[in-house]
Amino acid sequence: MSRGLTLDEVKRVIAEAKNISLRDELVFKLMAGYGLSVGEIVGTPARRWDEATRKWFAMEPSLSGLQIEDLDKEGILVRRKMGRPTEKIPLKGELIRELGKFIGNRTKGKIFELSQSRVEQLARTYSKKAGVLDGTLRPQMLIDYYRKNQGSPLMADTVRSESVSRPETVSPSETGRQVGRKIEYPGLTYAPINEYGVIFLFSMMNRDDDFGLGFSVESIAGPFPDALVVDYRKNRERGMKKYIEFEFSSSSFWRQKHDTKRCDIVVCWEHDWKDCPPTIEVIELKSMIEQLKLRTVRPPEKSNKNLD
């Protein structure tokens, strides 16, 4: 398994892209600073050629990529993979301005007219120029950097040209910590943006014995798996001990080569593990938020005051 990228390596690769093309710089920033996949940025092919069978076959699901008409002063709509709904993600003002500069007078269509294979080629080219991983950088490694660090401090310390003599004024709303979208869950205003947020949200979703998910945490440790819990979902009077691994995205479990035989449940914010084996349960908190919020809304207590 390949090692993760450092902040310095990511900035060096983006700097090389910046020297050649604003388009390429923006694509790399969206991957490393916001966690967007290549398909979500440039779209996925409707079909692909299979060398083994010498035939074309359909690709599912097919993504259209980022669209010009979906960009505004707050962020951009992203069409997610695996049938997940379109989601608007906030972008820093500086990046919105750079996207607007690249788009120019165009009003519709794709922002980036690139193929997935071209982005993969560019990743190798710029990483070689930057002296990172001997030119073997894959786009997924930039996305993994985001998932580990949530784009910070990359987005708080954007690579700038050496010719800039005076720093740009940044509004207070564009500084500070990165946060997820608003979910307004009791006790948590924003969605998790890393594994620690998933652990916190999981604990919040189990604080109520009657309206929670139905788990009681017995212990949390550093080594894999993360936690030993008691599962009371089937029987509130008699639980079963199980091991849980927390991940921001379920596919991280596979990328880290964890042993599925040593873990019962993966708890994540987003379930994107396409080939997840049926032997392990995945709990996606993102899809359970609204359902659990409805369950936790209790009817008002009746007043005991006597009416005159």
Structure write-up:
Mean pLDDT is 81; it is low at 157-175. The protein has a five-stranded mixed beta sheet with strand order 7-8-9-10-11. Helix 1 (7-20) runs antiparallel to helix 2 and helix 2 (22-34) packs across helix 6. It has nine helices and eleven strands. With 308 residues, the chain is α+β, with helices and mostly antiparallel strands. It has two domains: 7-159, Intergrase catalytic core (hpI Integrase, Chain A); 182-296, no CATH class.
Short summary:
The protein has 308 residues and is α+β, with helices and mostly antiparallel strands. 31% of the residues lie in helices and 18% in strands.
Question: How does the SSE layout of this entry go?
Answer:
Elements: H1 7-20, H2 22-34, H3 38-42, E1 47-50, E2 55-58, E3 75-78, E4 87-90, H4 93-103, H5 116-130, H6 139-149, E5 182-185, E6 188-190, H7 195-204, E7 215-220, E8 227-231, E9 240-249, H8 251-255, E10 265-270, E11 281-284, H9 285-296
Parallel strand pairs: 9-10, 10-11
Antiparallel strand pairs: 1-2, 3-4, 5-6, 7-8, 8-9
